[in-house]
Structures are given as structure tokens and as C-alpha cells.
Amino acid sequence: MYGKESITTKQGTLTMSTLHSAPTSQQNKGFKNTNQYYGTITKTFHWLTALLIIAVIATGVSAHDMSISDPVSLEWKVRLYSIHKTIGLTIFCTALLRILWALSQPKPAMIGDAPKSQTFLAEVVHYALYISLVLVPLTGWMTHAATEGFAPIKWPFGQDLPFIPNDPELAEHLATAHKFFERVMVASLLLHIAGAVKHHVIDKDATLRRMWFGKTNLSDALFSGHARGAAPALAALVIFAAVGTAAALQPVGKGSIDAPALEEVSSDWRVLEGEIEITVVQFGTEVSGSFADWTAAISFDPAADGDIKGSAEVTVSVGSLTLGSVTGEALAPDMLAATDFPTALVAGDILSADEGYVLEGTITIREQAVPLSLPFNLDINDDIATAKGGVALQRLDFGVGETTDSDTVGLEVGVSINLTATNAEDAG
Description:
By secondary structure, the protein is an alpha+beta fold. It folds into 2 domains: 247 residues, Fumarate Reductase Cytochrome B subunit (Up-down Bundle); 159 residues, Lipocalin (Beta Barrel), CATH 2.40.128.110. Helix content is 38%, strand content 26%. Strand 6 and strand 7 form a beta hairpin.
């Protein structure tokens, strides 16, 4: 049983509690909370979360600061981001369990004779931390699910989420929200730590000691009588609503570099629509992307004598590539080096084959020309031709990622085409 004596101060009513029948050590060793003490489970959640936050910030900052131009640094950057995401998902699950546990427990009264404004701020910070421990990892998880490739989560789940499509623009918005909420979390954490230090060093009360394991004597502690209410929680929600709105209003950037648009070329067959896609394997996961800017000069006559039915010359703006979340890494100097080698070229003859056609020629990337044989199927209907085909290339043939091992980025790169063209002469 607790004996209580009321004391009236300028700030409100305080209650001085003394332990009469239950030894202090029994209170501290309990798994559940009481009105004055935090139980062992709450303490474990608290310090486990603290360690996870330190780890997730350290790995995130370290990964962010690493260069992508150096292959060794790039590999470590990817691995650290993978660890960062894995810890983040661990924080998310831990936070949910911690919140469920907190809802089932009494919340110990605050210690000290602080003004109402300070206790209100402390409660707002407390709720902001709880909310951020859910929203920061959740938006990070959603960003990961909306992109392809780059630093997989190490848990046997979590690469994808329901209702979250692979969408670069959505991923950019989610990443912005993740960064904004992250700033709120850091600010709340610093205020929380500052408050704990104040209680321990300046006020010299048992607030910090009460959250640590072992015996803590609270027989002479003053417990605040200020009512908590719902106002601090609502204030924290308003803060996150405002921050979330600010994040949503941020402009969406693009992953590809700024490259001049390719000039139009004359062609017997004019491309109406089409895609040139590539697929790479990173850390065992396929990542697909496409080039937004390319031109094609095509001559083709299926009734021409001999095996050669025409020719094609395709110029691709390398800087227009979008490749999931690894676009920047793919365009880096050690990889495609888009700044130094802004275009790639495919040129050759179109030959008839046993099944469909094949483009026999060369493909030039980073000024390295390699023989190319690209089979494709062709469907012509009323002077509208649809071509679909694909080929596997070896990136090392072009000097792409020579110092990047095959476990990080696979050696084989799949290239596929899907285009629709019309006979320009007939159309004219």
C-alpha cells in the first residue's frame, strides 16, 4: 500500500508517496508498471529502442556519406543501407509491441515540481517519439517497396508491401516524407535526452534512475499531480500532420542526369511508341529500368531479295536511364559513366531468320564496340509493325563495373525492345 501526503505549490498539487509495506526492490523487479515505477518489460523496450535508434542513425549517416564513384565504397554503401533498412524494420515492429504494451499498463506519475508548460512539452515530446518510431520506419519501408533494387531488407519479409506499386514518383514522395519525419524524430530525441539530463544533473531527482534496471528508492520523490489528458497527444499529431503536408508539397526530382535531348533522325519507318529496357541482378534481386530518350533510323522491306531485309541504327541517351533506386549508381563513372559517354549506339543489318528476324551488327557502350545478334519477332499489319525481342549482354565486355564483384551486381544484363513503327513513306 502507498501512503500519500498532498502538498500545494504555485504550480499545482503534488503528492509525496512513501513505501510502507512493499520493499522498494520488489517494485523495481516487477515485470509490469505501477503508478510510480516502470516494470522490467517497459525498461527493456525503452533501452532496446534506444540502442536500435543509435544503430539506425549511425548506419544511415555512414551510408549516405559514402561515395558511389569508388566501387569499394559503393559496395559498403549498399551493405550499410541494407543494414539500416533491416534495423529500421526492427524498430517498427518493436515500436508496435511497445505501444501495445504501454496501452495495457498504468503510466507512472512524473517526478518533480515542474511548471505545467514543462510537463506539457515533455508529454508532447514523448508522444512525438512514439509516433516517429512508427512513421519513420514505415515511410522508409514504403519507399523501399515502391522501388526496385538497392540494399535489400535482410528479414525474410518486407521487400514488398500491399497497395504499394513500383513507382519512382511515389517512391520519391515517400522518401521525402521519411526524411521529414526523421528530422522530427531526431529533434524529439534530443529534447527527450535534454530533459532526462536536466532531471538527473540539475533537479537531481530519480527520473532517469527510475528507467534503469535495479533498485531505485523513490520514498522521498515528489510526483506531479498535473493531469496529462489528450492535449499533448493531439499536439504531437498536429506537428506530424503539418510536417507530412510540407513533405507532400515538395517537388519530385528525377534519378536520371540532365542530358541534352537527342535530335530527330530521318527514317523509312517512324517509331510511334516503344521501350528499351534493361534488367540487372543486384544482390540476387532483379532490377528493371528503361531509357526515356532514344532515336531509331530504320529501313526495312520484308520482300527484299536475299537474307538482308533492311538496317537499323539506334542511338540511346545513357543519361535518360531510370533504374529503380539504383539509377545514380548505374550512371556513375565506374558503371555506365553517362557524363563521359552520353550515348550508346546499336547498328546493324536486319536479317530473316528461321523464326522472325535478327539484327546483326554491333553495340557500342563507353566507346567499346561489341558484336551483337538480337533476335526479334515482327508483326506487320496495315503498314504498322510491332517488334519484340531481347538479348543478354556481359557488362564487363564494355568495361562497366570492372571492380564490382558479381555478387553485388550480376555480370549479365538483359536488354529488351518493344516498339511500334509505321512505314513513313506510306504514311506520307
